[in-house]
Batch of 2 targets.
Target 1
Amino acid sequence: MRGAGNKGLLLLSALIASATLFFSYQQLSRSTDDSGSLISLDGRTMGTGYRVLLQADEAVNSSVNTELQAAIETRLVILDKTIFSTYVPDSEISVFNQADQGVFNASPEFITVLQRALEIHRLSDGAFDPSLKPVVDLWGFGTQVGRQEVPSPDVLAAVFGLKGLTDIRIASNAGTVQKKSGVAIDLSGIAKGFAVDEIGKLLEERGISNFLVEIGGEVLSVGNRPDGSPWQLGIEKPVAGEAELLQPIRAHSEKMAVAGSGNYRNYFVHEGQRYSHIIDPRTGWPVSHELLSVTVIAESTMEADAWATALFVLGLEAGVRLANELQLAAYFALDNGAGIQSWHSDAFNRYL
Ligand code: AMP
Ligand code: MG
């Protein structure tokens, strides 16, 4: 059985004090809170849902909103279908993955995300590894969906041997990416966060200075709600099917970028054992430890997204240690048999 819900994680709900904001996905739905009105633009992208919340006075009127949503959707289609989707055979990433080796012209977006992925791979001592794509597929969490069994050791060893992020070289000035082997990559652990930042940029370019953008639980909030109070974000209780608040996040600045990673939604159960979609690059097996979720607050949503995945792979002890070393604000939810407990890095203190 697969975990309920979207393919993407909805680890972080944009918990916005008033429950009236939990309206269903609907084009251009309109809702009001106690003190002002909010516009919600929502739809689907990257295998999950997106939502943009705006103040009604900034969004002006419905024809402007329709045009704005069209611009948002156009941008998301480029990021998803044209660049990062491994499900679309002629997306940039798929073309890169299908080739044996060579030098490729790459979009600035592809280069930005891949470059940061390589850096976080290095900083996390290999825990964040997008070159696990063939392994993710083999376990049934990528493009070969539907598999729900443990692969044979021989097949797993063969596929595991294909990983090798260090076989990729980026020449950002030339706008090219080179690969020396048939390595294939899956940027699902970072691209949603990047897309959130890109939609944030699009809104700012249009002079909108109070908004919240969310894709599959990765959130960027800027400015305030219509009543002048900061957007209220929170960490969801890591239990599939429940949308309950585990920990509110204290808003600290004009801009908050928050992302999460967890194993409680996207998994399958085989012979009583749970196998989740996040793979340990040291073994090729789904990560299996007491952690249920990791939430990171960072400078950008891309950063938060990649680090949440990396720290989740590392587990509680090594994850907290690295987060403290790098001064990352990270919150860990776990179940060690005594119910849900939590731990956080030093830098997270200010958000409690
Ligand atoms: P996220 O939901 O951001 O934690 O990303 C999880 C997704 O990233 C998975 O569904 C896989 O597609 C991919 N992935 C799995 N394991 C890793 C890993 N160790 N490093 C980077 N990406 C991974
Ligand atoms: Mg991630």
Target 2
Amino acid sequence: MRLSFSKSIHPVSQKLADIVIRKKTNLALSVDMTDSKSLLHLVEQTADHIAVLKTHIDIISDFTPKLTQILRKLADEAGFLIFEDRKFADIGHTVCHQVKDGIYHIAQWADIINAHLLPGVGIIEGLKKGCQGRDIGLLLLAQMSSNRNLFSDAYTAKTVEIAERNKDFIMGFIAQQKLSQDNDLVTMTPGVSFSSLEDDLGQNYHTPQYVIKEKKSDIIIVGRGIYGAQNPKQAAIEYQQQAWQFLNNI
Ligand code: 5BU
């Protein structure tokens, strides 16, 4: 099996590798629903098939801290990691509060967070400070899936270089392909669908085969392809099986 990060020095990547191998899944489910009941129903249906649950906690209209307590409990019981896709992008002092305080207290329940490196390396230190006390991994946004985005090759290369120098906290990338030869770093790829090529707001899609086999990413991130399906559990199984098969090069 090609699971390049299985011996990563990062504790969260180690946990992720253990889950991927034990549950035979390199699928991250993006639960972009706006009410807690539908979100929890989806998680209960798919928990056995996912390695990562990706949230946008700030789109939940009826959010209470109870929701993140329940998600944390489900994650520990079913064995998946929680990735809050907040995409931090401010100065260190501000992101420190954004990850730790406010109404979401992300650092109390998330295993994985992500950030843009646009403000410079202070954002890494700020998030690290805000995450003290728990094992949390930071993914840097090195590329995006959306049409005509402004990521340049130089910006992506600089992001990779900085990640490789800060592996105590940075666990990898959100990107459209494997970018680093450093096996401590994980690559997760959104914009994955069996059936769609794009949506009407600029999203682009590729198949699990393309992302895992051709582009050598580790983890596929799927949202509407699963929760928009007639049978989300069955769809999760199909994405799980395909992504796993291509990781194993069958
Ligand atoms: P979809 O329903 O599979 O299109 O959802 C994709 C999710 O991944 C959604 O939550 C986005 O916010 C997220 N995403 C993305 O689509 N593309 C990117 O480059 C990044 C995140 Br970074």
